[in-house]
Amino acid sequence: MLAKLRQRLAFLIHTNGTIDGGRGIRTFCGMAVPYSAGLVLGDPQLGLGIGLASQLILLADVGGLYSVRLKTILGAWIGAAIAMAMGMVAVHYGGIGLIATGLVLFVSGYLTVYGEQGGMVGVVSSFAFLLGSQNVSADSFELISLAIGGLWGLVLAIVIWPFRPNQPLRQMVANNFTILANYLKAMAASSFDQDDPMVQPLVVQLRQNLLKSRQALVESQRGLWGQSKLRELLLVLIEHTERLNKPLMLLSEIINFHNLPQLQTVQILMEDAISALGDICLDLAQMVTGKRCIPNTNRLQLLLQALQQQQTLQKQALTEDFADYNSLTTVTQLVTHLENLTNQLSQTIQMAQLLENPRLFHPGEGPDDEGFSTPAFTPWWEPLKNNFQLNSPLFRHGLRLAIGGMAGLLIAQITGIPYGFWIVLTLIFVLKPDFSLTFQRLSNRLVGTLLGVLVMSIALKLVQDPHTLSLLGILAIALGTSLLRFHYSVAVFFVTAFALILKAIVPEVPTEYALASRLVCTLIGSAIALVLGFSFLRQSERFRFTQAGVKMIVNLEAYFQQLTPALLGQGAINQREAERVRNQSRLAATGMQIALDRFINDPSTPLTKKEPALTTTNYLARLSRGFRVLISHLENSSGSNPPPAMELFTTQVEQSLTDLRLSLENQSSPAALPPMAETLKQIRDYHQHYQAQRIAEIGQQQGNTPIRRYLNDFNLVVEECQQIYQRLETIHSAIARFTDSPDLAQEIKLKSQPS
């Protein structure tokens, strides 16, 4: 029991190691500058109020693309002004004030339909409403502070200090391109010697950094609700690094395998081309970090043209000496792979440009193969309309906030506790759309508040000068904002200190009452959040994980359909469409990983369900990678006839995916897998028959025959089909262990997804 409890509360001591020093400095400047101006003008309270208002608005600056940040901050500013005015009016009418509180909090919670940014705009608006409701004198001090402070915050965030909380993620993704550039330059310097001591460590380093950057992106999404366009783009750039690395390895192998004296000119050109690629990758790394550095591909294009001329010369030489056939084949392969690499590089450059300008491409003209072209215009009210139903988790979140806010306000009015609005304020910051995040938030907030109250009960007795307290308060809030992503409990400790310092500067009640009120209000607000999050209109984490699994399988079904024509010899793969579907599968896999984390961390999750959920998530991702490998084997297909049983195999895979999806949707045991083992045996027997014929041809010195092309096409394809079958078996077994509760079936069929 103790071990299980320690596991549940391990997040209290876990940190992600990220301290946003830039945000802390910006907060300090945002508070100190207006306060200093207020001292000079003889009104330090107004200066402090303006600084506070600027930090309230900047709560909505959660990072992302520049245009999105600008819209979010403006929306928070306008929403806060409207909400504060409503609070100042509603405070004079008891019943109407209660209804207004519920309405504002519902709207604030419902704004999560717009993702992370919308959720924070809701938090800022709710905060402003509570501040306005405390202004019983109906003076304009708060509104003036908000008007000036909002403008100051906007200028500070967008003009003076463009804070970028996602910069560490950008830097990690940029490191992939930097390592790749170093690898390219080392390859060129060593004349493609794969055993060179300068090359090998870079290969390992690139693999490790790719894995690390993927994990960092998943970690950055934990604790957040909604999607981030920037993180999605960074995820695509990680995959682009992988794709660039593949043709590079093929180029290196070809040059090492065909080390012919007559290819010296080609090798020199290849070394120059690889070195030019290294320079382009260094420029890409600069672009990812946000610097304006458009790569110049002119030199690479000239080198590619020179290699194409070498290919033409080899064709001419073949008419005079058939012994030059191998040389022509080698040069042709090198040119083909370098052309593929150049095309991939062009797509990567376009994707890196989207990091700074998401509307760089007009609708229908963007890189559709990546699935990130600018979508057609969608009215702003569509997400609100689509989620306005009880089975939407975001609608239910708004209802929970409204009910909890009204309950907190009633408790504050009945008990008459000083600063009773802290109850509702705690609820706003603690209650999240899912229980696992709510539980972690309230636990961290309780720990941070308790420590803050204990320390400040001593500090406020030692320091009582208003100016000294103001300086300490500014330092405290700066430290709190810089530590938000490092550890929420530590950040809450400093925020609590800041709040208590503010109340000590202009005391409305004795300091001891304020300290006790802060602790009691936090306890009440956390208790309300716990009750609402755990029981009322709660969407189970199992349901959320199951929805994510269904979405993943739907994407895999579409992905496999892109392979079918090539597997059946009916034509080449549509690379643009295949890559678009693959990107959707990759994003679905990321969403499933996040849903898995929340499902595992949910206290109500049975231990027997964690293992099959983990296995299902891992092997669905492996199945997606298996489809990608199959595409790479089929890319250069000559169109030779596949085994007759291949059509049956594709049908069986499609049927298996459909059965697995229906099993998750209906929460029932999956149907037995089709007999794919027998089908694969038929394919292998058919293939072995051709292999025997090929051996006979080699004995008769028949070099180039249709059978040779057939073996090149399907030798590795058959092996990969075997891997796909084994992964489907594992997924089938895991889902069978996971789906033994029919209570979710009806709920999953609704499949109301938030926009």
From TrEMBL:
It comes from the Bacteria. Residues 409-531 form the Integral membrane bound transporter domain. Its main location: membrane. It is a multi-pass membrane protein. It is found in: Membrane. This is FUSC family protein. The chain crosses the membrane at residues 73-90, 120-137, 143-163, 401-430, 442-460, 472-501, 513-537. Residues 141-221 form the Integral membrane protein YccS N-terminal domain. InterPro entries: IVT-Associated (IPR052430), Memb_transporter_dom (IPR049453), YccS_N (IPR032692). It holds the Pfam family FUSC-like. Keywords: Membrane, Transmembrane, Transmembrane helix.
